TrEMBL record:
Keywords associated with the record: Oxidoreductase
GO CC entries: membrane
PROSITE patterns: ADH_SHORT
Taxonomic lineage from the root: Bacteria, Bacillati, Actinomycetota, Actinomycetes, Mycobacteriales
Protein family according to the UniProt entry: Belongs to the short-chain dehydrogenases/reductases (SDR) family.
SUPFAM superfamilies the record matches: NAD(P)-binding Rossmann-fold domains
Name the record gives this protein: SDR family NAD(P)-dependent oxidoreductase
Source organism: Mycobacteroides chelonae
CDD domains named among the record's database cross-references: SDR_c (cd05233)
Cross-referenced Pfam families: adh_short
Length: 310
């Protein structure tokens, strides 16, 4: 049996039961905090239990923490049974947990692909299957949210495995939406653009020849922190809007919206634009921005919220 620690006194009371994966930081934490503040009972799950506990400590409302590796269907089964026993059938599931791997297609190994697909795709599959089946069996309305990405419709030379995994997650969401509509269960894909999280800090990076992985990571994180204008809370607000109005796809921020429009209007133009960036070009651009734009970086840093993980 998988041990699933639990903290936080949560009484059975009014309010929806909301399960959030990857709730230990970043977007997942912002979603958990917003839902708890709205009066929901939030189950904050994360592979890092200590991080999930920090989210619980910050929550203004009913919130508890579980350790969960989304790749493990046995853990999904056990945690879902525990939630149903203690609180009831979840009303909302937010599949947020995800990772990124940067590097050209030819540089990434089969193990890299297995890792990212295991979390970004099969983590969604296991969650939707396990929690979704409980929703269907209960016969009551519900909602499933998948945090996808603007990368889902962006051909990507810098992180092809990430774009592929997010495209798969988007199609899972679209397919499930058609299947569960007759059951009065909504399904929404939230597609953020560049967001101030620590996704880059925790990403696996396969850099071009002759470059330092750690220096490149530091440059990317620096740029993401200063120039990604969407905050995790903005994504959390988009989640609430998607649930309220049962929206199918919600791009968040102008970059994701622009990519969505280009993808819809002219896929050929989108492919042409996406041929330009390479890992080496991305590394050089990040390094140049860090070195030559200190004043702009410092100015934006004052306006930015602290970076957190996805």
């Amino acid at each position: 049996m998988v041990r699933l620690p639990f903290i936080g006194p949560v009484a059975k009371k009014q309010g929806r039961i909301v399960v959030v994966t990857g709730a230990g930081s970043g977007i997942g934490r912002a979603i958990a905090l917003r839902q708890a503040a709205a009066g929901d009972i939030v189950i904050a799950t994360d592979i890092d239990l200590a991080a999930a506990e920090e989210t619980v400590a910050l929550a203004k409302g009913a919130c508890c923490a579980f350790a969960l590796d989304v790749r493990d269907p046995a853990q999904w089964e056990e945690i879902t049974d525990t939630i149903v026993e203690r609180f009831g059938v979840p009303d909302i599931l937010v599949n947020n947990a995800g990772i990124a791997i940067g590097g050209a297609f030819m540089s990434q190994t089969p193990q890299d692909w297995e890792k990212i697909m295991g979390i970004n795709v099969f983590g969604v599959v296991h969650g939707c299957k396990t929690v979704g089946s409980k929703m269907v069996d209960s016969g009551k309305p519900g909602h499933i949210v998948v945090i996808v990405s603007g990368a889902a419709w962006t051909p990507n030379r810098v992180a092809p495995s990430y774009s592929t995994s997010k495209a798969a997650a988007l199609m899972i969401t679209e397919s499930l939406r058609t299947e569960l509509a007759p059951k009065n269960i909504g399904v929404s894909a939230i597609c953020p653009g560049a967001t101030r999280t620590q996704l880059g800090a925790h990403a696996t990076l396969i850099t071009s020849a002759g470059t330092s992985t750690e220096q490149t990571r530091a440059d990317f994180v620096n740029i993401q922190d200063r120039f990604a204008f969407a905050s995790p809370d903005r994504v959390a607000r988009a989640v609430q809007r998607a649930i309220r109005f049962n929206l199918a796809i919600v791009p968040v921020n102008f970059d994701a919206t622009l990519a969505w429009i280009l993808h819809r209007i002219s896929p050929a133009l989108m492919r042409t634009i996406c041929k330009i960036p390479t890992m080496k070009l991305a590394e050089d651009a990040a390094r140049t921005a860090v070195q030559r734009l200190p004043s702009a970086v410092a100015f934006h840093s004052q306006k930015s919220t602290p970076a957190t993980t996805e």
